[in-house]
């Protein structure tokens, strides 16, 4: 092997000996990456300033994947001083956190004796051992997004518990950092509109964490249950290791009580007069809805709540639909019907918060445009929206704009049977966006629909122009 570097580092050359097609490359080397089929060497190998060996696959393979494929123990890549310093703690597991597109953004590392560290790829085949300026995501987020909205989601206090539940056919997630760290999540939108059960560890810290998570999801998740394992088992993993089965766990989940947001926070006035009773119920209602996003637009206050079949509803706080949603939220948490005066008092409170604490954000009816993208609300039960951009169009129920629900009478819902006419309108709008993005002018005349041209020909009129391409 010809070396093009003067670094007499035994660790570096021990790594090079395990690779193929090694050749000098600047102050280091390059070789074929063992983690993928590589005919044009794409793996860079070099020695860092602190003596550690750096590996970076330019085709996108991760540091762990390269080490596993080459049979390299990661401790071999660090100076002896670093090895001695970490010898007391043995790495036993790693838990990858991916964003919604499946890209790993950071990793939690578990050691024995039990301790945890967090790290993120630095883009050079190594790790940065902190999560500074990194968006915190839910564990197993891609799998959570792919799961049906009808599937129950289990929320645990750690990755080991989540994986044990996933291995038994459940949908499960958690947050990095353990108890008390749910608040560090960048967002929890993947849980909105879902039925969730929160597994709490059998200690004061675990119970407080479970209550914190439930409180933060109140008004967002469709239903919330909190479950502490029976007997002396401290968590769900210990219960499963003791012989608990999936069927038994489903029974425990079904028997778990719904989360009561008012328990421990508000006290009823019992058989006192109506004034005190209504005040207590209004406090419970306000507490249950405290995590609902409130905004205002054109002198109207709105609340953003989960849709029944997915997506989000933007409801005017004074609308009957929001009033019904608020009553349903209270009933789901307490099993009781809120007094009408308590609902009215809560609406006044939420409306005030929307105007004075909420942001002023546009609320659209059927059609919106933002940053060159057009959004067409289909007004169906699934909250589907046609997204039209210079790249084409697709349908989704997750968009960055708000549409008013329910629609005003002057704007009827889309008739899905209208077919060709509506698709033509969508295509016409997409053509306009494409033309603008290419620097072309947009045809000032409305392009005729297919049935418009047929009617024109039937009457013997001049031929209409073809639709814009």
Characterise the protein shown here.
- This protein has 469 residues and is of the alpha/beta class.
- 30% of the residues lie in helices and 23% in strands.
- It contains 13 helices and 22 strands.
- The chain has helices spanning 10-16, 63-70, 80-86, 141-146, 159-166, 204-217, 236-241, 246-255, 274-288, 320-334, 340-356, 420-437, 450-458; strands at 20-25, 28-32, 43-47, 53-57, 90-98, 104-112, 115-121, 127-128, 153-155, 171-173, 195-200, 223-228, 293-297, 300-306, 312-316, 359-360, 363-364, 367-370, 373-377, 385-389, 392-396, 402-405.
- The strands form 5 sheets. It has a 6-stranded mixed sheet. A 4-stranded antiparallel sheet has the order 1-2-3-4, covered by helices on one side.
- A hairpin with a 2-residue loop joins strand 18 and strand 19.
Summarize the structure.
This protein is 30% helix and 23% strand. The chain is α/β, with parallel strands linked by helices. Strand 20 and strand 21 (392-396) form a beta hairpin.
Radius of gyration: 29 Å
Largest sheet composition:
6 strands, mixed
Multimer state: single chain
What is the count of β-strands? Answer: 22
Number of domains: 4
User: Which structural class best describes the helix and strand composition?
Assistant: alpha/beta
Q: Approximately how much helix is present in the residues?
A: 25-40%
Mean pLDDT: 80
- Strands ordered across the widest β-sheet: 16-13-14-15-22-17
Portion of residues in beta strands equals 15-25%
The total count of helices amounts to 13
CATH level-1 class of the largest domain: Alpha Beta
